[in-house]
Amino acid sequence: MKMVDSETHNGLFTWDNKRGGNSQVTSKLDTLLISEKLMLTNTEIYASVLPFGGSNHWPIQLEIKGIDAPKNRPFKFENI
Known about the structure:
two-stranded antiparallel ribbon, 5% helix, mainly beta, 1 helix
């Protein structure tokens, strides 16, 4: 199975060194791999970089539309 790096729609970088000015370094260190088979289906795949949360990495959110949820699957819960 071939994996493809999904491009993010709203950001080029997922990491920075938390320095300002000429000392600032940014890079795309974090990747989101999706199977090529999924990319070829009739689905809408949207990856976006979420707002900075205090770390030096920004999280990536993946949304996939067009995949049907399994039906007639019973809900199971164990009260432990």
